[in-house]
Specification:
The protein is an all-alpha fold and 232 residues long. The chain contains ten helices and no strands. 83% of the residues lie in helices and 0% in strands.
Length: 232
């Protein structure tokens, strides 16, 4: 637990000192709020929740991925990862510590999206829970990208197009049957399935698919951590 706490505190301090990270956390909620107030509320044809749901899913798929990838790549570049591994820090301890602060921040932002969408009660809990689960998958994927990247620059080069693809694939799958079949395993597509279904519809299959994404990404991270840590 000490190693997790130390890594968590380090990541929190680094994040709080970085204005770029703060901007990434507030950009999507601001866009959702502005478009809801200026476009959704004046038009009875547009649901008040539409932009909050859309930008919330984009946030969950993109922001944790890029931030975690860059944070781990920075640790590799500074040789911190090698030091931690030689000190006996297990991969799951490192992953928990490095993603902890980002996921807590994601939970807060998810509540903001729910308030913008005017969700309440079980609908809010459902929405926030799905966003946080998607953010967890995104963070796990970002950790895998970060552990393979040589430095922060290469991590950004890998994570950015991947994050954009994750944001666009759900929209593309709505208009193209072939994309829907191929990309159905992607966690952002399954998040979109939940959000576009009726609240009373079963969420079991999409949730299982998102959890499967998390398991695969964490497994890849653990394997890469054990293989690359001494070369970090």
């Amino acid at each position: 637990m000490r190693s997790i706490s130390a890594i968590f505190v380090k990541q929190a301090r680094d994040a709080l000192k970085n204005a770029t990270i703060f901007i990434q956390f507030i950009l999507f909620p601001i866009m959702a709020f502005v478009m809801t107030e200026m476009m959704a509320k004046p038009d009875p044809e547009i649901p008040n929740s539409m932009f909050a749901v859309t930008f919330g899913a984009m946030f969950a798929g993109m922001t944790p991925l890029t931030l975690i990838a860059m944070a781990i790549a920075e640790d590799k570049e500074n040789k911190s990862l090698r030091f931690l591994s030689m000190a006996g820090v297990k991969p799951h301890h490192y992953l928990t510590g490095i993603t902890g602060f980002v996921l807590i921040a994601c939970a807060v932002v998810s509540v903001l999206f729910a308030l913008i969408a005017e969700f309440s009660g079980m609908l809010m809990i459902r929405f926030v829970g799905v966003l946080l689960l998607g953010a967890t998958a995104s963070a796990a994927l970002g950790a895998t990208v970060g552990i393979f990247a040589k430095n922060q620059q290469s991590a950004t080069a890998l994570a950015t197009p991947l994050a954009v693809m994750l944001a666009l694939v759900p929209m593309m799958s709505q208009f193209n049957e072939s994309v829907r079949r191929i990309a159905g395993v992607v966690f952002t597509v399954q998040m979109n399935v939940i959000f576009t279904n009726e609240p009373t519809a079963s969420m079991a299959e999409p949730l299982l698919m998102i959890c499967a994404n998390i398991v695969v990404f964490v497994g890849l991270f653990v394997l890469a951590y054990k293989k690359k840590r001494l070369n970090s």
